[in-house]
Each structure stands twice: as C-alpha cells, then as structure tokens.
Write a structure and sequence with these properties.
11 helices, 7-stranded mixed beta sheet, 417 residues, single chain, 5-stranded parallel beta sheet, 20 strands, alpha/beta, 27% helix, globular, FAD/NAD(P)-binding domain
C-alpha cells in the first residue's frame, strides 16, 4: 500500500513534486526549514521601496512547457505577462547603440537573413556558429566555442550564456545551452516569447501551489528543519525534525529537495556540486511610470537585464560573485547610472533602491561541476533527490527545477507500483 511521501524542502522542486504526487492521489507532507515556501523564487513587500518585489528576477520562455503546465495545474496560468510575439530589445552602453532581435515563427530561422531583426553589426554567416552548440562536448566552454567571433560573442553568446547558466562564459558549460536552444529559439517565435510573473513570483509559483495542495489535504510544515535521516537494512526509516523523531511506515517515501550541501549532510554517499555563483538584483522605485521596454538586455555594463514593472525597475546581474563584497550603496549608484542611461531617465536624484545579494544562487555550471550532479535515484529505494542541481541535462532554470521535482514524483509513483 502506498504510504506518505515526506518532501524535504518547499522550493519549486519540492512544490512541483508535491503537486504531481497529489494529482496522482498520493498523500504528501512538506517540511520547510524557513517561514515561507519558494526558496529563491519568491516575492515580498519591501519596507524601503514600499512595494512588492521579487527576491530575484526570473525570465521564462513560452517553450518552457513543464513550467507552464505546472502553472496551469495550480490555476495560475494567467499570472504571466509578456509581449504577444518574441521580441528582445538591447542597448550597448559602451556605444549607446540599440537593436531588437525578432525571431520568426517556425523552426527555419528566416530572421537571420534580415539585418533589422538580428544582432546589430552581425553578418548572416555569423549564425552558422550556432550549430556548434548541438555538437558541444562535455568539456567545451562557451568562450572556447564562440570566442573567435568577438562581436557576436560579446553581444549574444556571452550574455546569453551568463544569463542562462549564471556562470562566466569563459568557464560555462556549452553543452548545457543546447537543450535550452532546442526547446525555445530553435522552434521559432511561438516558443521563445519572454514571460515574467506579472504580480510576483510568489503570486505565480508559490501561493497558488500552497492553496492547491491545502485544498487537497496536503500538509505543509514551516519552521521544520530536517536534521537527519535514519537508515537501516537498505532503506530510509526515520526523520529527525527539530529533535523530534518521525518513524517512517512501511510504504512511506522521502524526496530530498534541498540545496547541495544540505542534501549531502542528509544523504550519505552522494556526490554534489561544490562550487557556486552569485546573483545580484537591484530594484529602483522610479515614482512614475516610464515609457520603456518591459525587458531590456544591457551590453557593456555591470547590468545585464532590466525588468520594468510599472514604476519599478529591477536589474539582474548573473555570475555576480565579484560584486558580493561591494557596499550596497556603491553598487546602487553604479547600477542606477546604467539604468538611467538605458531608460533615458535623469541620473539624479537616485530613486529609492534595494540591493539583494544571493551569494550561492546556483552551482557553478562549469564542465567540472556538471560532472558532480547526481541522478535523482539513490541506492535507497524509498528516497530520491530533487532540485535544480540534479542531473537532467538542463541548466539551473525554473523549467529545469520543476522538471526535476516531477521526475522525483514519477520515481516515487513507480516505486510504489
């Protein structure tokens, strides 16, 4: 008889696993050490800015089919916003040049023949290099494959790799980019339309899931830190939750959906990535709505992407480990100058701001670290792993995280027959 599934960690991997198991009729119990769910994908009201902000900006694409299916299941499919067609606007702050990338519909990339739809300054022949991604070897880095074309590397491949892999292009695994391209840009504009959470990440991915689970009998325990897992005779048999021992019944199962160092402390004999990269986000309350793109890519600056929600301008800097020791005010002044230039705003006075540093936002997606990603299944038949760092061939994205949660759920269902 199928028992209770104990899910450790209420980030997106844990939530997506819980949703799929509940949908299949299984009973679940979520343990979250913190006071709220969502992990790095959440929003909150900031007392300085006086509005709701995301702890980090996350961009989805319309080809992220599992993420969109998850939102549909929990009743949040209408909470994303974006342009009606695939359009990506850029500015190079070093030259003050602007351009727009506009892929066409269908898998044949006619758009690269039109200089008004491709990267400014690029030539038709430059795009043949995209074939290198499909043939990338495990040891290949993005810079090694594309560094020979300085313009396209600086204005496309480098920024694309950093934003997707949160790792500097000189060290980032090129092989991880191919599944992203294959499922989005390679299929045409219908699959690479940019999407963002209109109200907030929690409003899209977290609150609806918690409500959906609660209405179906799912149990969520906050402030419940799992300190240890007991093992005996080849199975996981107990959980130490804040000093309380919970003994597993015969049909009970466990999904460990926590960051790599925590998972390694709970599950013996697994390999996990050991190096990490940070992400820095800056939020500015403009005080007035401005006429500017809702999503703007920035080249030649510390800022990489500017997301605009009404009168809020939010900036993402990936692979931001070099900035983590800088003073917040210094960072805010530097980033604001870039935002003001990009959005054609007066540079002073600087509006109210908030700097958010996530020092270990993702594991370093280098060829060496990718090799350390474990599979979801462990040697204990009633325990599986989930999380963005589990090996599924995808980089650390919302899409990959949700898929890993669903894979863990599928393995639990198969094991229970």
């Amino acid at each position: 008889m199928a028992g209770l599934v104990h899910i450790i960690g209420a980030g997106l991997a844990g939530l997506s696993a819980a949703v799929r198991l509940t949908e299949a009729g299984r009973r679940i119990r979520l343990y979250e050490a913190g006071t709220q769910a969502g992990g790095r994908c959440r929003s909150y009201v900031d007392d300085v800015l006086g509005c709701r902000i995301d702890n980090g900006n996350h961009l989805l694409l319309s080809g992220n089919h599992r993420a969109l299916a998850y939102l549909k299941t929990i009743g949040a499919a209408d909470t994303l916003a974006g342009p009606e067609t695939a359009i990506f606007q850029f500015i190079d702050l070093a030259s003050n040049e602007r351009w727009t990338v506009r892929p066409n519909r269908g898998p044949i990339p006619y758009w690269v023949f039109d200089r008004n739809r491709r990267v400014l300054g690029s030539k038709l022949g430059d795009y043949a290099s995209a074939l290198k991604i499909a043939l990338a070897k495990p040891e290949d880095t993005v810079a090694a494959l594309f560094g020979a074309n300085p313009l396209l590397f600086r204005r496309f491949w480098g920024p694309f790799a950093v934003s997707v892999l949160n790792t500097e292009a000189e060290a980032a695994s090129a092989q991880l980019l191919w599944p992203v391209l294959r499922e989005t840009f390679a299929r045409g504009s219908d699959y690479c339309r940019p999407l963002i959470a209109a109200q907030g990440l929690s409003e899209s991915f977290v609150f609806p899931a918690l409500d959906w689970l609660g209405r179906r009998g799912g149990e969520i325990r906050f402030g419940a830190r799992v300190r240890a897992i007991g093992y005996d005779q080849g199975r996981a048999i107990s959980l130490d939750v804040g000093g309380e021992t919970i003994t597993l019944a015969g049909g009970d199962q466990i999904i460990v959906a926590v960051p790599p160092p925590v998972a390694a402390s709970l599950v013996p004999e697994i390999t996990v990535p050991t190096q990490f990269r940070g992400i820095l986000n800056a939020h500015f309350r403009l005080g007035t709505r401005v006429e500017s793109p809702e999503i703007l890519g920035v080249i030649g600056a510390a800022s990489e992407w500017i997301f605009r929600h009404g009168d809020l301008a939010s900036v993402t800097i990936s692979a931001a480990t070099p900035y983590m020791d800088d003073e917040p005010e210094t960072l805010a002044k530097t980033i604001w100058r870039e935002v003001a230039t990009a959005l054609n705003l007066a540079p002073s006075p600087m509006p109210p701001w908030r700097i958010i540093k996530e020092k270990r936002a993702s594991f370093a997606q280098t060829p060496a670290q990718v090799k350390l990603r474990p599979k979801a299944m462990t040697r204990w038949p009633n325990l599986v792993l989930a999380g963005d760092w589990i090996d599924n061939g995808l980089p650390v994205t919302i899409e990959g995280t949700i898929r890993n949660g669903e894979t863990a759920a599928k393995l639990m269902l198969q094991a229970a027959g």
